Amino acid sequence: MKLTGAQVIAQAMKNYGVQYVAGVPGRDCLPLLDAFLDGGREIPFIQVMQSRSAVHLADGFHRACGCPMALIGGASGNDMPMPTDTNVMEAHSSAALLIAGRTAADAAQRAAQLPDVLQSAFSVLLASQPKPVQIQVPLDVQCELFDIDMNALHAQQATEPPTADHRLIEKAVALLLSSMRPAIFVGIETQAAEAKDALLKLATRLGAPVVTSASTKGIVPEDHSVSGLSAGRFGTGAGNSILARADMILVLGCKEADWAGVPDVPHAAGSSDKRTLIRVSLEPPQHDQTWQLDIHADVSGALRDMSVAISPQRSRRALSRHESWLATVEELKTRWLQLVAVRSDVLKTPFSAQRPISVLRQVMERDGVVVAGPGTALMAVQQVFRAYQPRTQLTCANSPVVGWAVSAAIGAKLAVPAKDVVCVVGDGDFLQSLPEMAVCVMHGLPLVFVVLNNCGHMSTRFLQQKLLGRHVGSEFNMPNGKPYSPDFSDIARSFGLESWRVEHESQLERALRGALSSGGPALVEILTAREDYASLAGLCGSPGHSGEKSSMRRPEGSAVE
């Protein structure tokens, strides 16, 4: 059969189950766009307002459902996004096919090469540890007509991930059973492996709390008895304290960014003097003295093998051995949740950041998806919004990027249209991607934006004050010093969204319920206190967090407001 290069790409994408293509249309990808309209190759195109938004949209889509999207761009005023945008995807094991069009072909590149190129690309996109893949397809290659064997475009079976050596599994189980205070720390690779059931089975048989990274909340329901909540820079005090006190930590599927955010546990107040670390990951083995045991394997398979190795008799002994430890874990969780509840119940206005998130958790469905932008929004969601299912709390915690959340939430809604999807974002962050509201309206997506408006980048201001004793460029002010903000509810209304502006407690729950039941895109602007970030950071403080270096701090007398 004769097809153009563009039709070959469209057919391969259809065969591999790509559901959407996003980007900004331009000259260098017009043949490809046209191919998505052919009968049997139709793939809906999502036109975004900014090129970088397409990457964030695809990121949210993949994280919500585990399937890759495709993106297009070119050199004619619609360049593909910067590496910093795709780095966010890599840091969270997220994947998308990025197709970059160009005006001229390399002499060696012809359309006949496309089947092999595409097959290689999808082998990465659908791997156990996926990442984004970019291919360059010049304009003349997109237009070139050639004979193609359609069998070459069929989806290939994914390569089986490596399995763990049974001797290492038995050694890991023996170490866990012999410990007094075991804990399991879960990173983003575990979510990609869909390891929830195997993880719960191991944790309950062993009697070990499961603590998640910020990007993996929900892999274990946070009201389950084995949940140790989340840990790390953006995690909870309870999760960090549990890891600080554990004498044995099974580290599952952690990228460097997951583990780097965990406190310096050996030097934490109340920490164990001696700690053993076991790592299971598809990342290459690390020859590091830190890891007593490093298992290079598929996380799901390793978890199943460990569960099988713990017989009912071994499980009874382990649960008895760890009874007092589990009681300590429960005490740490209870103390933390009470602390957060006190902040969440404060009714003064402007609101604390925790208050609207607490009400949002009450009015959303249990399986609803929250997408949190960086800064204050991320802190508040991590602290207050309990997650009960995998892929229901999406953040860019491993690689924070301003402007990520709005487009990621659009992608999440495309991925799970039947679920509530709410984007919680600060006003400074929202201003970076405000035009993407138009995408929601054009596609009729019932997505809710909750804008925590504190008139600036208050997380940055807090960090400047902490390190330098003064701040600059982090507040939005008029020349006379009065806080400045556009009226986001009015702006949203002009885009075609239903909107609410919440200034008082009596408006809060009604506005959130109204937005969730509106049947279309909606926005709730909530006025929050500028001074709230310090209390947010204080709640995240925990054993083991040494904080930022103080050597940069200026004399107190130099602080200015």
From TrEMBL:
One of its GO terms (biological process) is isoleucine biosynthetic process. It holds the Pfam family TPP_enzyme_C. Keywords: Thiamine pyrophosphate. Residues 4-73 form the Thiamine pyrophosphate enzyme N-terminal TPP-binding domain. GO terms for molecular function: acetolactate synthase activity; flavin adenine dinucleotide binding; magnesium ion binding; thiamine pyrophosphate binding. Residues 375-526 form the Thiamine pyrophosphate enzyme TPP-binding domain. It comes from the Bacteria. GO terms for cellular component: acetolactate synthase complex. This is Thiamine pyrophosphate-binding protein. The lineage of its organism: Bacteria, Pseudomonadati, Pseudomonadota, Betaproteobacteria, Burkholderiales.
